[in-house]
Structures are given as C-alpha cells and as structure tokens.
Amino acid sequence: MYTIHITVGQNVKRLRAQRGWSLDKTAEMTGVSKGMLHQIERGETQPTVTTLWKIATGLHVSFSSLLQEDNGSVSVVHRKSAPDITEDNGNCLVYVLFPFDPQTQIEIFTIILKAGSSYRSTPHNEGVHEHITVTSGTFQIRIDDQAYTLEAGEAIRFAGNVPHSYHNAGDDEAVIQVVMHYGDV
C-alpha cells in the first residue's frame, strides 16, 4: 500500500545520506527546519507542497522524486481517489501521474484548483521549465510580476526559477496538467 508520508520520508533520508549531509546541513540547504526534516524522515508528518518544493530545490532533485516509489520500468496510472499532496487548506490538490524519469528528465502531475484557491510556488533550480496545459476551467498564473489567464485547451511554458503562483478566480474547478522538465539540473 502506497503511503505518501512514508515514501517521502524514505526518499528524503536516502537522498540526504547519498550526499553525506547531516540534518543540520540539509536544513541549511533547504530552508526546512531540522525538526521538520526529522519528522518527515520518520514518516510522522505529511509535508505540504511548499515544504516538498523547498526540499527538492535544496537537494537539487525533482519534486516527484520525493514522492516516487520504486515500481520497475512500466507504470500504468489509475485515477486516484485521494491527492498525493494538498495545499491551501485542501483547495489545491496535486496528483502525481508520472514521477521524475532520469532518461527524459521530466515529471508529470495534475493539479486541481478549487474555486478561489491559490498556490505560491518557490522558485525552482536553474534549468527547470514548467509546461502547463489547462484541461478545464480558467487558470491564472503570475510569473514574476506578469499575470496570464488561460482557458481550457490553452498552455504556457516558462522557466521555473522565478517566483510564480497559481490562482483560480473562477466559480468552477480549474484542472491543469503540469510537465516539469529538469533539463540542466
């Protein structure tokens, strides 16, 4: 059975050990407290999307590599009944479709933004690009100080190493597909 907080904890611990980093060093590099990292590694807490991005950025790994189970070479994605991660008090739901693949340097996930919800992303590492396609609803993204409003069927691509935030100002859910490309990471 896939338990996200256990998997995340194992991956953080493994990645930290591969680097030979102490919890103090990892806290310094990620901006996540030593106590929180310890709880995450022990599987005692499920971190938020923001915390996972901080850890991924600090460890110089993809977001989904923290969520990935070792399942072999073929993956079939089934519709999940529960999101992998939530943000904005459960109004932003993140479903990992395909975790980071070292051969393609991409990961793919679906984000559902309920009406009125928002999510502010921490800037990613240099070389990370986001490709977002809106599959339903109206979606607004702010990249640096520029806002872009997209409807179903429209898409945007941008360098993810700048401040950016997602917002759904509409009355219906906005569903987006996100492809993260880690070209130079």
UniProtKB/TrEMBL annotation:
Keywords associated with the record: DNA-binding, Transcription, Transcription regulation
Domain of life: Bacteria
All residue ranges annotated as the HTH cro/C1-type domain in the record: 12-66
Signal peptide: none
UniProt xrefs under Pfam families: Cupin_2 (PF07883), HTH_3 (PF01381)
Claim: Ligase is one of the keywords in the record: no
SUPFAM superfamilies: lambda repressor-like DNA-binding domains, RmlC-like cupins
InterPro entries according to UniProt: Cro/C1-type_HTH, Cupin_2, Lambda_DNA-bd_dom_sf, RmlC-like_jellyroll, RmlC_Cupin_sf, TransReg_Diox_bact_type
PANTHER family listed in its UniProt record: HTH-TYPE TRANSCRIPTIONAL REGULATOR (PTHR46797), HTH-TYPE TRANSCRIPTIONAL REGULATOR SUTR (PTHR46797:SF23)
Name this protein carries in UniProt: XRE family transcriptional regulator
Source organism (scientific name): Ectobacillus antri
UniProt lineage: Bacteria, Bacillati, Bacillota, Bacilli, Bacillales
